[in-house]
Amino acid sequence: MMEHREILQPITLGCSKNTVDTEHVLARCAQRYEIVPEDYAGRVDCVLLNTCGFIGDAKQESVEAIFSVIARKNAGLVGKVIVFGCLSQRYMEQIRDMIPEVDEWYGARDLEPVLKALGVENVRPSGSGRVRRDSTLPYAYLKISEGCDRRCSYCAIPFIRGRHRSVPMEEIVQEAGALAAEGVRELILIAQDTTYYGLDLYHRRALGELLGKLSEIEGIEWIRIHYSYPDSFPEDVLDQMASNPKVCRYLDIPLQHVADKVLSNMHRNVDGAWTRELIAKMRSKVPGIVLRTTVIVGHPGEGRKEFEELLDFVREARFERLGAFRYSEEEGTYAAENFRDSVTKKTKDRRYDKLMTLQRGISFAYNQSRVGSEIRVLVDSFSGEYLVCRSEFESPEVDGEILVRYDEAMGVPVESMPGRFINVRITAADDYDLAAEFVN
Fold first, then answer.
1. SS3 76
2. pLDDT at 3
3. I need a labelling partner for 87 at 20 to 30 A (CA). Which of 110, 159, 187, 235 fits?
């Protein structure tokens, strides 16, 4: 007779780093619990909710998710509620008394206490040590460090996640090898700051060395870098991009601004001239590199002149991908305690709209320039008769997609296509997505 297992429902909010945390916890739970999807509507014994507490909208989403789970608990559909992650790390004292229906509260750094609460603290995980949110996807996020030693004035991450701590290189390579054995073809390296990797363990920036070791793993075809920091950017990473065919010519590098006054107020440790030189160096050393960045509009110190300088910079740099945030005060940060939030919401909205209108034109021109070209793409999934694909120049979840009509000449059924690489010709483009046809 099969032993009854309790039902555990994980819910993860926020960034990909939170997703990886949850997946590591679930790997230790897999023998004791039946793990059901996030959207499961039936009765469960426990909900494990990983929260985000980075900015206002994310905090609101986390609070609403907690109340939604509590409503299910009050209706008899949930037994126990365990909340952990960034929101509870940041506001533990305030919210535990406000929401007494939550059974256990833990912070973002409390993974071992969470495992103890689940009764699996001494369980060794198998395989990659992860239960991936969607094991059919051919890519996986690989967290190479935790925490941050930077002190950007607007950011709450250092006092939520703590100081920077690199994962030993051999542990990363072992996890990556196991992911490859499970069918993963693309690794996306993530951290609060990937370019800081190794300074604490090896007393040097070791991201370039790590890229070389990961590229030796059989089955891994693409390695992509997210969340890099411009200050003291390690140039050997650019050498890897230029010479190593497995390292995608793609870089996520949040620059946040270009005006000297704003960068100084942000405590970014670089100025506008240095930023422009770095972008020029990247374009020169890695021909064809695609750059993704994020910027903040309305930060204290951003007047009309500084915003116009930001627009001029975006026109010059022509980032293939760019996202923007409106500045909002985050309690406990240097900016909130030392600067007045003097830019009105109306002005922030207007600047945001103007910036994103400019960027849409740049993105459209870039995508149009690709029409007619032949590229290699990875099939992520399929929808009806269309394959949802990406090239090395698109990162999942944040960038556009390449849609390819399934062709029997591909040689396998459409449901067997995810995880395969195919060659395609780009036939059409809009602001963000592309259409393509199979090239035999």
1. coil
2. 60
3. 187
